[in-house]
Amino acid sequence: MKTMKEIKQEAKTKMNKCRACPVCNGLACRGEVPGPGGKGSGSTFVRNVAQLSKVKVNMDVTCGPIVPDTSSKLFGKEVSLPVYAAPIAGITNNFGAEMTDTQYNADILDGCIMANTIGFTGDGKFIDMFTGPLSMIDQRDGQGICTMKPWVKEGIDLRLEAVSKSKVLALATDIDSAGLPLLRNSEIPVETKSVKALKELKAALNVPLIVKGIMTVDSALRAKQAGADAIVVSNHGGRVLDETVSTIEVLEDIAETVGDSMTILVDGGFRTGHDIFKALALGADGVLIGRPVSLAAIAYGPQGVHDYFMNLKNELADVMLMSGCATISDITRDKITVVKD
Ligand SMILES: Cc1cc2nc3c(=O)[nH]c(=O)nc-3n(C[C@H](O)[C@H](O)[C@H](O)COP(=O)(O)O)c2cc1C
Q: Residue 122: CB within 6 Å of ligand 1?
């Protein structure tokens, strides 16, 4: 199995925009959008990663012998760990990789299946950027989640027809993509959403709805009011708005408010098994990872994605062992400390 270090070294030889830094923290690529960075000064991406270091694990080895079980479920589907591949589009443009989005999506879906977890696919200006990945998910017996941009009604209707005929596990919509200038100015544009619009979307679906791009308690409550089955606490990896707070800072309040009624996922800067543990302790049911999973696919295809997730699984199991957690549900708030500096 390739280590995370080997994956990065190999990825570096296969792309020319992302530097594959030892820690993927948004510093070297500040403002590089298109590219792998965060928008504007890049402060949101940087903060996502930096704030995670303020959460510390409480070591506890007095709970007797433990064999940690990292398995979990998402919408009834068993997964080997509650960590998923985030939707990423524009692999050539953003990473400078010699790989098409089609190949990328196939590798992500296959790598996730090999690791017994779930891959998300993305969307774009042209309809086939949504329907292409969707049919790949169908070819894999529905093992994947597709993500739709927050189009005006016309764009949504075009895509929902394909969703209604597919076996996809769930539909996500990255409502924060309303902040992407390229999509705001496209022939069929994106827009910010209302509860009414999200309710209509939910009513048109026969699969769970995930609303991605929630950063406040109020917006989480609106997603709940619309009938969403899950939210992703996300700022799109810092790519849609500069100077926002990090996702780990807002997670706990959101999870406390709506966590009993919806599945809570989170993303933005999560890199290690320790980071996953911190998110779960603060109320998340699962974590999405973006850029590092992309590097794993660029480096070694599906095998790289599989190895990346297995490294995370081993790290998470180690943290669970050392903190007295036998199962994912044992990872509770008392297992971490949030430090001031
Ligand atoms: C190059 C790039 C492309 C992305 N494309 C999409 C996309 O098409 N749809 C989407 O919902 N999110 C997209 N995202 C955001 C990710 O899904 C995710 O929210 C973010 O990358 C998580 O942060 P991380 O990369 O620090 O783990 C993209 C992110 C990057 C870096």
A: yes
